[in-house]
Fold this sequence. Notes:
Layout: H1 52-56, H2 61-64, H3 68-77
Amino acid sequence: MPCRPHCGACCTAPAIDSPIPGMPQGKPAGVPCIHLDAQRRCRLYGLPERPRVCLDFTADELICGESREQAMRWLGWAKA
């Protein structure tokens, strides 16, 4: 499925333990990645700096649900 506009749940809800450019310790759950823009789109998308954990994530209805709120709840249980 294509990413939901103005969502960014996958870049906010889960904790990411691996380094992210500008966030060398990763990020805690519930904290937006510093690379999200005002529309909650990744500014690293398509760039070689994009972390492996982000490259490996694929939007899917089972994970993303029917809304950003559902995705935030489901992805909050996940840990990257």
